[in-house]
Amino acid sequence: MIEVYYIEDDETIADLVKEYLAQQNCSVLIFRTISEAKRALLDHLPTLILIDWNLPDGQGNDLCSWIRIRSANLPIIFLTVRGDSHDIVAGFQNGADDYVVKPFELTVLYSRILALLRRTKAVRETKLFCNDLVIDKEKLSVYYQQEEITVSQPEYHLLLLLMENKGKTVTRKQLLEEIWDSNGNYVNDNTLTVTMKRLREKLHNPPCLKTVRSFGYRMEDTI
Q1: Please, which pLDDT band fits residue 186 given cuts at 50, 70 and 90?
Q2: pLDDT above 90 coverage of the chain, percent
Q3: Which among 3, 51, 77, 158 has the fewest CB atoms less than 10 Å away?
């Protein structure tokens, strides 16, 4: 099933799009504001995003840029009355994959959704995000606020494991077993404490890296 987040404050248009896409086996969640959409996106990424330009708490192009920083390949389509060439160019420059001007035919919208998904289906996410912290799994690199941070191999694998389990508490035992013991390097609990301390210092103590006292650690987005 195609999972769609639609950010639109016009209830009539939103309901028409939702009803039609539901008939095409799409699951559609509607958000009236940018802030609502951000909270949902921090928790879960859908198959595709539809965004209106003019919203009660900001502009869709700003939300598009915010999404694109966190997910390079999440398909995004603008649905807007703003059909001026300047606006269309701005939409694409801010990360949109397609741009549909209102009024539009629902059948055409669905066709463009399918076409976009065909183009992006083979694209694999190679970056993990948590606020301003980024791991590029292809380059084996870590970035904080767009600055590359040099980390050791244990520090990288520690951060990678936490990022891959974002939103979940990873216990100290799990971290020790998966990062060190799996390589045949049996170490004591203090090794993890020291590695985490050094990693935090290199990343300037990011607020998204949280300690769960007596249990372990958790990566968690904060707006």
Answers
A1: low
A2: 62
A3: 3
Contact predicate 53/7, CB 8 Å? no
Q: Please report the sign of the dihedral spanned by the C-alpha atoms of residue 6, residue 72, residue 156, residue 160.
A: positive
Tokens of 38: 């951000």
10 Å CB burial of residue 47 (0-12, 13-18, 19+) is middle
Q: Which residue stretches of 138-219 are H helix?
A: 153-164, 172-175, 189-202
Q: How far is CA 53 from CA 27, 77, 100, 197, in A?
A: 22, 11, 11, 43
Pair 64, 58: CB distance under 8 Å: no
More confident residue, 63 or 139: 63
Q: Which two tokens stand for residue 93?
A: 């420059």
**Measuring CA to CA, which residue among 203, 218, 187 is closest to residue 151?**
203
Do strands 2-7 and 48-51 pair parallel, antiparallel, or not at all (unpaired)? parallel
Tell me, what's the pLDDT at 189? 81
What is the tens place of the pLDDT at every residue in 105-148?
Answer: 999 999 999 999 888 764 446 778 888 888 888 889 999 887 89
How far apart are alpha carbons 76 and 99 in whole angstroms? Answer: 9
Beta bridge partners, 49, equal 5, 76
Dist CA 14 CA 72 (whole Å): 26
- Give strand pairing partners of 128: 135
